C-alpha cells in the first residue's frame, strides 16, 4: 500500500515531468534520425514520430492506389514505379484540394523510397496553408536535393524560398514564386504541371493587376494537350466570382476528370449556382457529398477531417431548398448534426458540420413552414438547447415562431418569457457593473469597456428578438398591421414571409411588388414563386397567377408537393387546368458532361463504419472479445503499455469516471501493447483500488492495425479512443500521437450519438 501511494504521489509526477521534457527536446530537434537507438525516456513518448513534430500530425496510415484522382504528368527521380504512382496520385489529390489524402499519398511514397526528395516536396505542397509543417517537409526535400534532377531541384528551391518568406511579405513571396514557376517553364516548356501550378498560384495570389485572360490562356494550353486535366478545377475558381459562363466547359469536365475526389464534383456547383441553374448545382453537390461519404465510411475517416466537406454539404442543402427538395434538405441537415463532433475540427463554435447543419435545418424548417417538425426537433439532440448564448436566442426565436404559427399561444408566450428573463439578468448585471465601476488601471478600464459593449450588444439583440416574437404573436392573433410593424425592421425575418404579412395587413400591391422584386434577385428559386402564385390567386389575379405558376412549373421537377406551401398550390393548379402533379419533368442540359448514376458514387447520408472484430486475453489469461459487447455500447481505449506515461495518465483520467459511463449504458475496455505479464504491472501500479477498466493484451498489434491505430510509415502503434455502439459501429474516434484526455467530452458525445436513430442511414 505504501509503495502504491509513493508511486502515485512522487514517482508518477516525476516521470510525467521527464516525459514532457523529452517532448520539448524532440520538438526542438525534429530531425532526429529514425534509426538512432531510443533511450529509456524516449520510449515514454509512445506514438510520437521519430522524425519530429511535423510528422506527428497528419495522416499516419498507409495510402492505397484508389484510381480516379486525375491525369497528371510529373516524372520524379525514383527507381520504384510504385513510388511514381503514389506521387501522381498525391498530386492529383492536391489539385483537388484534398490535402489530407494528398499528404497521405506523398508520405506513403516517401516510406517506399525515403531518399526521393520530391515526395517530401509534395507533402510540403499539401501543407502550404500550414507554414510550420510545410517548412518541416521541404527541409526533408532539401536534405535529399542531390538525389533530384535539375527540374526537380527547381521545384524544391522554389517552394523552399516560398515558405521561408516572412508572412508580412506576401507580395514579394508571391512574385518570387510566380517567377520561379515561369523559370521552370522557360527551361521545360512542355511541363504541364508547371503550367497548372502557375495557373493555381495566379488565382490564389490574384491582385488588381492579375490578368484573368492570361491565366485562362495558360489553362487552355494544358487542355489542348490533356483535355481532362485536373486544372479544370482552377478555371472554375478563376471565373467563379467574375464571369462564371467562362467556366461552363470546365464545369462539365471537372468531376469527371477526378471522380474519386469529392471536391472536384462540388466545384461545378459553384458555376451552376452563380448562373441560377440550381438543379444542375444540386446534382454536382450531391455527387460530392456521396463521394465524400463513401470515402469516409470505407477508410474510417471521421467527417470534418476533410476540410471542405461541411462547406459542400451546407451549400447542397441551400440548393435543395432552392429547388424544393424539402425532405432531402431536412434529412441532410439532420445528418450533418448527427455527425461525430471533435474539439479539433467539429464543434458548435467551429464552422463545421455541427454549426452548418443546425443553421440549415432552421432555414429549411422556416422556409417551408414545417412548424411541427421544428417543435419536435427542438426537443431532441438536433435542435437542443446550447451553452452558446447567440445560438440559444436563435432557438427560442424560432421555437416561439413555430408555436405561434401552430396557434399554441401559451408555449409561444413561454419563449418570450424566457427571453425577457435573460434580458432582465443582463440589465441587472449592467446596473451592478456601472454602480461599482472604479477601474484602477488603463488595462482594467479597457477590459471593462469591452465587457460593457458586449453586454449592450446582447441586450439590444434580446430586445429585438422579443419584439419580433411579439410581432409573430400579433400575427397569430390576426393583428397583421401591428405584427408587420414589429417585424419589418428586423434583418433576420424571411423577406418572403414579411411580404406575405404585408399582404395580410392590407397592403396588397406593395406586397406583390416586394415579392416580384425578391424573385428578380432570387432567380429560379421555387419558394418565392410559390408564395407569389398563392398571393396572386388570393388577390383574384388569376391570369397573373397562372403566368407565375407556369414559371414555377418549369423549375419544380424535384419539389416535394406534400409540404404545406406546395400542397396549397395543388387545388389552385387544378382550377387553372393543370394535372394534380403540376410539375414539369426535368431534362438535363446538354452541356453538363457525362454524369454517372448518383447511387454509384456513394450514399446520400454518412453512416458509421463497422468496428473490426477481435479476441484477446487479459493479464490472467482469460479471453475477451468484441462479441461480449454485442448489444452493449462501449468505449475502447488503445493503450501503449506500462512504459507510456501519457497512456497511464489517460487511464487515470477515465478510470474514476467509469461509474458515470456505466450509468449512461457504456462499458469500457483498454487494449494494450503489453504482454499479459506487463499488463499485471499496469494493474498493480494503479493504486489501492482495483483498476476498473479491464486491460487486454494485443502484443502482436493485430487489433491496433485493424482499427488503424497504427503508424504504417514508422511501424509503431498510436493512441486511440473509440465509442462503439451495440451494433458494432464506430460512432466516434480519436487516433493521434497523443491520447485523448477529456473523459467528459467522450461521455457527453457518446450520449448524444447513441440517442440518435440511425436505422435509415445505410441507404
Automatic annotation (TrEMBL):
One of its GO terms (biological process) is response to stress. Residues 431-441 have a biased composition (Acidic residues). Residues 426-457 are annotated as: Disordered. Residues 1-23 form the signal peptide. InterPro entries: AhpC/TSA, Thioredoxin-like_sf, Thioredoxin_domain, TPR-like_helical_dom_sf. PROSITE patterns: THIOREDOXIN_2. This is Alkyl hydroperoxide reductase. The lineage of its organism: Bacteria, Pseudomonadati, Planctomycetota, Planctomycetia, Pirellulales.
Amino acid at each position: 500500500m505504501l509503495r502504491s501511494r509513493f508511486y502515485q504521489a512522487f514517482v508518477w509526477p516525476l516521470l510525467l515531468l521527464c516525459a514532457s521534457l523529452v517532448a520539448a527536446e524532440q520538438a526542438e530537434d525534429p530531425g532526429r534520425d529514425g534509426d538512432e537507438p531510443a533511450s529509456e525516456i524516449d520510449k515514454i513518448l509512445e506514438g510520437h514520430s521519430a522524425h519530429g513534430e511535423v510528422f506527428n500530425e497528419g495522416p499516419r496510415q498507409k495510402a492505397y492506389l484508389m484510381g480516379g484522382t486525375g491525369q497528371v504528368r510529373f516524372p520524379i527521380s525514383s527507381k520504384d514505379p510504385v513510388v511514381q504512382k503514389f506521387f501522381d496520385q498525391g498530386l492529383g489529390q492536391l489539385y483537388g484540394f484534398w490535402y489530407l489524402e494528398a499528404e497521405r499519398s506523398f508520405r506513403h511514397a516517401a516510406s517506399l523510397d525515403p531518399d526521393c526528395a520530391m515526395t517530401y516536396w509534395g507533402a510540403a505542397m499539401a501543407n502550404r496553408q500550414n507554414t510550420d509543417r510545410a517548412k518541416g517537409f521541404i527541409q526533408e526535400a532539401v536534405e535529399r536535393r542531390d538525389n533530384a534532377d535539375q527540374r526537380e531541384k527547381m521545384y524544391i528551391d522554389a517552394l523552399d524560398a516560398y515558405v521561408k518568406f516572412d508572412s508580412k511579405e506576401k507580395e514579394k513571396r508571391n512574385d518570387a514564386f510566380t517567377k520561379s514557376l515561369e523559370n521552370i517553364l522557360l527551361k521545360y516548356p512542355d511541363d504541364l504541371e508547371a503550367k497548372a501550378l502557375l495557373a493555381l498560384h495566379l488565382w490564389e495570389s490574384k491582385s488588381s493587376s492579375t490578368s484573368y485572360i492570361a491565366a485562362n490562356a495558360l489553362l487552355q494550353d494544358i487542355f489542348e494537350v490533356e483535355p481532362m486535366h485536373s486544372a479544370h478545377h482552377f478555371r472554375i475558381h478563376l471565373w467563379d466570382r467574375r464571369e462564371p459562363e467562362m467556366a461552363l466547359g470546365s464545369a462539365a469536365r471537372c468531376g469527371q476528370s477526378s471522380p474519386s475526389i469529392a471536391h472536384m464534383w462540388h466545384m461545378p456547383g459553384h458555376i451552376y449556382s452563380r448562373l441560377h441553374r440550381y438543379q444542375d448545382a444540386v446534382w454536382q453537390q450531391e455527387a460530392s457529398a456521396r463521394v465524400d461519404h463513401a470515402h469516409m465510411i470505407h477508410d474510417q475517416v471521421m467527417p470534418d477531417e476533410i476540410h471542405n466537406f461541411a462547406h459542400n454539404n451546407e451549400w447542397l442543402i441551400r440548393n435543395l431548398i432552392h429547388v424544393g427538395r424539402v425532405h432531402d434538405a431536412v434529412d441532410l441537415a439532420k445528418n450533418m448534426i448527427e455527425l461525430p463532433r471533435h474539439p479539433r475540427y467539429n464543434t458548435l463554435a467551429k464552422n463545421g458540420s455541427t454549426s452548418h447543419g443546425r443553421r440549415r435545418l432552421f432555414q429549411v424548417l422556416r422556409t417551408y413552414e414545417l412548424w411541427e417538425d421544428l417543435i419536435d426537433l427542438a426537443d431532441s439532440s438536433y435542435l437542443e438547447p446550447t451553452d452558446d448564448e447567440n445560438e440559444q436566442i436563435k432557438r427560442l426565436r424560432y421555437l416561439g415562431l413555430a408555436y405561434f404559427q401552430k396557434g399554441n399561444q401559451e408555449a409561444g408566450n413561454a419563449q418570450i418569457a424566457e427571453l425577457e428573463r435573460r434580458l432582465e439578468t443582463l440589465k441587472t448585471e449592467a446596473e451592478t457593473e456601472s454602480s461599482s465601476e472604479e477601474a484602477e488601471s488603463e488595462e482594467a478600464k479597457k477590459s471593462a469597456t469591452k465587457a460593457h459593449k458586449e453586454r449592450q450588444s446582447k441586450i439590444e439583440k434580446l430586445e429585438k428578438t422579443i419584439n419580433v416574437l411579439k410581432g409573430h404573436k400579433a400575427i397569430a392573433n390576426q393583428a397583421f398591421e401591428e405584427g408587420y410593424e414589429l417585424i419589418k425592421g428586423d434583418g433576420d425575418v424571411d423577406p418572403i414571409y414579411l411580404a406575405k404579412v404585408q399582404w395580410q395587413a392590407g397592403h396588397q400591391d406593395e406586397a406583390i411588388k416586394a415579392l416580384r422584386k425578391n424573385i428578380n434577385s432570387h432567380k429560379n428559386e421555387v419558394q418565392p414563386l410559390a408564395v407569389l402564385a398563392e398571393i396572386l390567386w388570393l388577390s383574384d389575379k388569376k391570369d397573373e397567377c397562372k403566368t407565375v405558376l407556369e414559371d414555377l412549373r418549369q423549375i419544380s421537377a424535384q419539389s416535394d408537393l406534400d409540404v404545406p406551401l406546395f400542397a396549397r398550390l395543388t387545388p389552385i393548379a387544378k382550377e387553372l387546368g393543370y394535372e394534380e402533379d403540376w410539375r414539369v419533368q426535368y431534362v438535363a442540359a446538354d452541356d453538363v458532361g457525362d454524369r454517372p448514376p448518383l447511387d454509384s458514387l456513394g450514399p446520400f447520408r454518412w453512416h458509421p463504419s463497422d468496428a473490426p472484430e477481435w479476441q484477446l486475453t487479459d493479464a490472467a489469461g482469460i479471453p475477451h472479445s468484441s462479441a461480449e459487447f454485442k448489444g452493449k455500447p462501449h468505449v475502447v481505449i488503445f493503450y501503449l503499455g506500462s512504459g507510456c506515461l501519457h497512456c497511464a495518465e489517460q487511464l487515470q483520467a477515465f478510470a474514476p469516471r467509469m461509474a458515470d459511463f456505466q450509468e449512461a449504458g457504456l462499458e469500457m475496455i483498454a487494449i494494450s501493447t503489453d504482454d499479459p505479464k506487463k499488463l499485471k504491472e499496469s494493474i498493480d501500479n494503479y493504486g489501492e483500488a482495483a483498476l476498473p477498466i479491464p486491460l487486454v493484451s494485443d502484443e502482436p498489434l493485430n487489433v491496433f492495425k485493424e482499427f488503424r491505430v497504427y503508424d504504417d510509415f514508422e511501424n509503431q502503434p498510436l493512441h486511440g479512443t473509440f465509442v462503439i455502439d451495440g451494433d458494432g459501429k464506430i460512432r466516434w474516434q480519436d487516433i493521434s500521437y497523443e491520447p485523448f484526455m477529456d473523459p467528459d467530452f467522450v461521455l457527453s458525445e457518446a450520449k448524444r450519438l447513441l440517442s440518435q436513430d440511425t436505422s435509415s442511414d445505410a441507404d
